[in-house]
Amino acid sequence: MGIVNKINIGNFYSANNQSGKNRSRDGNQYLNSSAFASADINSSYTFDKFIAGQSNVFARSSAKSVAARPHGCLYNPLLIHGNTGLGKTHLLHAIGNYIKKTRNNANISYLTSDIFMLNYLYAVRQNNIASFENNFENIDVLLIDDIHFFRNKDGILDQFYHIFNHLYQHNCQMVFTSDVPPVKIQGLNDKLISRFKSGLNVRISPPDLPTRVMILESKIKAFDIDLDKQTIDYIARHISANIRQLEGILARLEAKFMLLNSRFDRKIIDKTLKEFVNSKIEGQPEIKVADITNTISDVFNISYDELVGKKRHKEFTLPRNIAIYLIRKLLGLSYSKIGQYFNNRHHSTIMNSIQSLESKIKNDDRLIDRIQSIENKILAGEITANP
Question: Is pLDDT above 50 for 32?
């Protein structure tokens, strides 16, 4: 009982899945350690870096209120909901960072829904639910991201309800995020819905035009491109769904300008923007880094550790480069961010991996076809051993 161990989930898998033999064919990583896996709070997600506008100012204010008074706030639990890519996770981390900064002794536990479920399932397999529950005994703040993934999982929901009640009775501040409001989470019983309604449910909407402009002006600093005010306004008017799409278009422009050795070109911008908008198929499910790495691990029959590891054998470097390339293409993450997923590689190493693969693609039609096949599987949510 007591303090939750803060173990980075990537390192947790690495330490407990060295051979990759315990990895299921559907891409899941099985836990085989008694340690409780938690996740790290991202220090770069703070309130001052959260761009507030009409669509999200109430959510930010509510989050700041909770962070300022984690034991005296009336908003318990606070649930922030809205479509993907609008800043819910940013606010969740911002709460954690603020409390860590202002209350050094606060015991904060941040979990994603999948990490919560993995720890629970491991405890079930070991017939030791008590050890799982003990990790929540003495925490002050519980932050859980994406609780909508608990839908229709009766065992998980029962355990979550039990932990929720215990923490609520002991005045532990709880903050959750979800893509949908509680009443739309399938399988959520009336007791949990009632508990959520006793707190504060806040919705984040897609950013309006002025907010999108501010977000672009803020994000552009992380990309090696020059865009004037007119171009920023132009992009903001055409990309409106969420913040990740804004980051995605900046990433594509950076790549185009780099490959064409240009800093600014209106034709490139227009063409890239058109391609980007047309590639966003309505209703297509969100793709995550894990979807890409899991698919490629299965396609090439290697473990997750081998994919992201340091070994330079061809059997690992090619799938690794493809994974990096597709993460950049499909998710639009910066080189530095991608590097974090691959054993904290330097952004220049990530850039070189992409350039190396792009060079091979030019002269290898079979490789082009193979990458396209993998990309199609990712977009379709398929994981198959042999492409």
Answer: no
CATH code at 209-279: 1.10.8
Q: What SS3 state is found at 299? A: helix
Find all residues with CB under 8 Å of 295, minimum gap 6, and list them.
27, 374, 377, 378, 382, 383
DSSP label at 221? G
Domain limits of the chain?
9-203, 209-279, 289-380
Which 3 state secondary structure label does DSSP give 249?
helix
Mean pLDDT for the stretch of residues 317-326: 93
Encoded amino acid at 281, one letter: I
pLDDT tens figures, 55-78: 888 999 999 999 998 887 778 999
Residue the block writes with tokens 């923007």: 273
pLDDT over 60 (residue 341) = yes
Which helix or strand (DSSP H or E) is residue 81 part of?
strand 78-81
Token digits of residue 184:
């739309």
Look up residue 31 and give its two tokens.
Answer: 């836990």
* The predicted structure's pLDDT at residue 93: 95
The answer to whether 141 and 96 are in contact (CB under 8 A) is yes
